[in-house]
Amino acid sequence: YEARCARQGLDPGVQLASFVESLEGAELFWNSVEANLKAGRMRLVFVADEIPDELLTIVEFMNMRMSPTEVLALELRYFAGSGFSTHVPRLMGRSMVANAMKEGVAARQGGLRRAWGRETFLADAEERLGKDVSNALQAFLERCSTVFEIAWGTGAVNGSFTPRLRDVSSRGPISVYSDGRLEIKPSWLNDTEDACAWRALVVPRLAAMGWSQAAGDKGELVLRVDCQDWLPKADELFYAIQFDKAKIRRL
Fold first, then answer.
1. Any residues with CB less than 8 A from the CB of 222 and at least 6 apart, and which?
2. Containing H/E element for 80?
3. pLDDT at residue 83 above 90?
4. What separation in angstroms does the CA of 220 have from each of 30, 45, 109, 127?
């Protein structure tokens, strides 16, 4: 910091004072930095255009073990085409095992679940993923709202919504999370006769898009798809989960 200021002909103390409003504030600022470092209250972020699986494994391990330090990986992929270009951020390290552990602790402690809604979901998505991805999630949410009832999740860490048809099933074939993740779970549509009919329509449509649930020891496993892989197919996804109960009954 001091070297950079020197190269630019700036006084480091004055620059810092302009940030914290006074030189007295600068001393408090550095005292706070020292206290946080000693206590381990930090966020360590690995940033790259591509995060290898090996690095993600290390990040997730560190994130689980280095409490209260938070360790994250931020992947910034570059996309270009038709005269436009953008960087799509993908925040990793909070998901998978780390999130499962945090949500498990919240469930055991009780009272830490969160009631999500449209505004809180979109705000969390924008903070995690940036405005462009948040806008894309909002567009998909608004489109689903024209056909489906939106059921909001209660996760302690991630917000989520599930498009469902109340008079068909209490469940839905997909859920979208505020970290950008899509969960595909049509096998959950088994609580009514109409739900089974809905599932029979959705499964081959999703399979045609390259998304099929894998079978596990206890039945069908939830398929998780990252935002950069499913958002470009949002239009196809919207049509894939459609269900016209009246038309089915006529057939």
1. 183, 184, 185, 213
2. strand 70-81
3. no
4. 53, 35, 29, 32
